[in-house]
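User: My collaborator sent over this chain with a note saying "see what the structure looks like." That's all I know about it. Can you take a look?
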Amino acid sequence: MASLELNKIVGAILLGGLVSMVTGFVAEELVKPHGEIAETAAPASAAPSAPAVIEPVSGLIAKADVAAGQATAKKCQTCHDFTKGGPNKIGPNLWGIVGAKAAEVPGYSFSDAMKQRANKVWTYEELNKFLAGPRIYVPNTKMTFAGLPKLEDRANIIAWLRQQSDSPMALPSDADIAAAEKAYQDAKAGAAAPAAAATTTAAAQPAATATAAATVAPIADRLKTADPAKGQEVSRKCQACHDFTKGGPNKVGPNLWNIVGSKAADVPGYSFSDAMKQRADKVWTYQELDNYLTGPRAYVPGTKMTFAGLPNPQDRANLIAWLRQQADTPVPLP
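Assistant: Without extra context I'll predict from the sequence alone. Here is the result:
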């Protein structure tokens, strides 16, 4: 979307990060929860695949780079506040999150997925697993943050979060580290057999995927039955990062008034990512928007957009139909 860098639309949610990043992450849980760690409303999507076995973080906490963790946390500040007594934002206040129970931040409305984990404690390893892939570890969380794939990054931010407390949780003991390692090795062994069995059916997957893709009607056909009102509902999930009004401000993401039919990376006053700048000659046609909204990071590698995408074809058509109306002169329908 003219940046549709949506690099922030139809996301944030936050980023939004961490929190959209810990906004995003300790944001769809972090962003929604403290305990939910940060649930940032994310659109409904297909159930994620089974989570990979996550390498333990306990052995790295004591020697982690706290300053690097603080730098990562800045990406989550759109959705989370980390100060003592600070407010809940899109996600819950995260002061004292390490060692706290999920879904217990006063005054914050957690998702049902996080409420079901109310008896869980945000231990070092629980945070590690959540931050590796929020929506995989807590299915149906509202968190849109994709996660932190690097173990070192997770260790750094968890070490920094630990310090945001009147009484920081004790560092992992040798026994804690050993237990975490054993659980990891056991999980790897348990995953080995199912993984081997899955390999035998892998060859059939491409054909099945192609068949499913072939059933999706072209965007031109879907727009004929699109419901702009439903598209407006979808767009509300993007308002933390985008403004859609004429003359409105750029936020975490660019203003998206008149996005349909405009060129990428040309919103005045907005600093686009290098990935989007390389598409400056592209126009946000209906097809381009449909492709992008299906999976922003897959369609534009290197984009700063953290939103996972809209897997439902009609949801995309509804949103695009509504975005088309946010213009002085809407682009003709295909």
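A starting point for your reply to your collaborator: The CA atoms of residues 292 and 299 lie 6 Å apart.
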